[in-house]
TrEMBL record:
Signal peptide: none annotated. This is 382_t:CDS:1. SUPFAM superfamilies: P-loop containing nucleoside triphosphate hydrolases (SSF52540). Coiled coil: none annotated. One of its GO terms (molecular function) is hydrolase activity. Residues 134-221 form the UvrD-like helicase C-terminal domain. PANTHER family: MAMMARY TURMOR VIRUS RECEPTOR HOMOLOG 1, 2 MTVR1, 2, TPR AND ANKYRIN REPEAT-CONTAINING PROTEIN 1. Keywords: ATP-binding, Helicase, Hydrolase, Nucleotide-binding. It comes from the Eukaryota. InterPro entries: DNA_helicase_UvrD-like_C, P-loop_NTPase, TRANK1.
Length: 230
């Protein structure tokens, strides 16, 4: 069995390989004795595929920071795996600040007019939170190209990804502020982390991780509410 437990974003899903080991252990001890009255213990082997051949280091560094937050705040929600790495370098993700959506898409149109080969096609995608956000993007520009929700994009990969209004549309709202407690030099307005109260962030971290890791080459992050991405 293979998989990335950080990508378990289906509602009610919280799979870990440790849980599978426990299940196998319990099953093993309930088996009947063999012919020689001895148990033939079954010990599953685990090995990690932590070399990423899809995304470069610039993208994986951001993805690793999300995994770090998962491990720090919700250690029981993810297995103990080594961080992924890539042997290929690449550009850091770009965050758009103080920019309106109309300006962003107008800029894209101007680029396309000057260079006909630059367009959102099969290798580019805009990833949004939900169907409502998808419609909002299409209302801004009906010819924008492929727009998918995070759940729809899971398992897919694209050269270029624009993550649109992920934090603006987040149901976690101000709960995101609690992660500032991870910053050594930040002491203002930090909320006390309470797992039961802030558990929605566990799902949010995983959704963010899935969205980030869809990109092979370039990742752009845009939020109309720029305060939420600082």
């Amino acid at each position: 069995m293979a998989g990335d437990v950080a990508q378990c974003i289906a509602r009610g899903s919280n799979f870990r390989f440790e849980d599978l080991y426990t299940l196998i252990y319990q099953w093993d001890h309930k088996r009947v004795l063999s012919e020689n009255n001895r148990y033939t213990s079954f010990k599953p082997k685990k090995f990690e595929l932590n070399i990423n051949y899809r995304s470069h280091r610039g993208i994986l560094q951001l993805a690793s920071s999300v995994i770090h937050l998962l491990k720090e705040f919700f250690p029981n929600s993810i297995g103990k795996l080594s961080p992924e790495f890539s042997e290929i370098g690449g550009p850091q993700p770009i965050i758009f600040e103080d920019c309106q959506a109309e300006t962003l898409f107008a800029l894209r149109n101007n680029i396309e007019n000057a260079n006909a080969f630059i367009k959102f096609g099969a290798d580019q995608v805009i990833i949004v939170r939900n169907e409502k956000a998808k419609q909002r993007v299409k209302d801004l520009n009906s010819n924008i190209g492929l727009v998918l929700t995070v759940f729809e994009a899971k398992g897919m990969e694209f050269n270029d990804v624009l993550l649109y209004d992920f934090f603006t549309d987040s149901p976690a709202l101000l709960n995101w502020r609690v992660i500032l407690s991870e910053l050594d030099d930040y002491s203002g307005g930090i909320r006390e982390f309470i797992p039961d109260k802030h558990y929605i962030l566990c799902s949010e971290f995983k959704h963010l991780y899935v969205a980030i890791t869809r990109a092979r080459e370039r990742l752009w992050i845009f939020d109309e509410d720029s305060e939420k991405i600082k």
